[in-house]
Amino acid sequence: xxxxxxxxxxxxxxxxxxxxxxxxxxxxxxxxxxxxxxxxxxxxxxxxxxxxxxxxxxxxxxxxxxxxxxxxxxxxxxxxxxxxxxxxxxxxxxxxxxxxxxxxxxxxxxxxxxxxxxxxxxxxxxxxxxxxxxxxxxxxxxxxxxxxxxxxxxxxxxxxxxxxxxxxxxxxxxxxxxxxxxxxxxxxxxxxxxxxxxxxxxxxxxxxxxxxxxxxxxxxxxxx
Length: 224
Hints:
The protein is α/β, with parallel strands linked by helices. It is built from six helices and six strands. A six-stranded parallel beta sheet has the order 3-2-1-4-5-6, with helices on both faces. Helix 4 (103-131) runs parallel beside helix 5.
């Protein structure tokens, strides 16, 4: 059974992606900071007949992230799909406009988005390259692709997520033509909570389409 690891899993988009992939036969490894939350999400997925488990880690704490993936490996053997979508609500610094940007409040967002995404990729990418198989999907807000898409207060976040976007685009470039596929998903809409007919459920189907098509480096939602 293939496994998807969702880094930044929560009750909104993360749960919806887990549900979509789980219904297609995937086991689900949920990664975020709070084990109690992860256990509730895993139980909810279990009620749908989906094999899921939570592995607590902080993406800004590299050793804890590595330890979580070691536990994922022990339980599931390998990760076939990595989906990285940390919640903006977990960001350690408030959003700031460009005139208020400092090295410190931009650095904190780089730690969260760019280095968090890079660290997550490093947990699975060597194995994917070795077996020539795997998918990596990275989620950001729409301002990563178009800095003018959001309000000025997205200044430090736009800088950091644009850096993550650049990494993913280059990763797609170097893995093109191999069995490893990397793509960026900038979302330019309010997601809200998961549930019947929610926006999160609709967006999650977009991820399954990207996974099955394996075509192109970037897939905005709504479609550009």
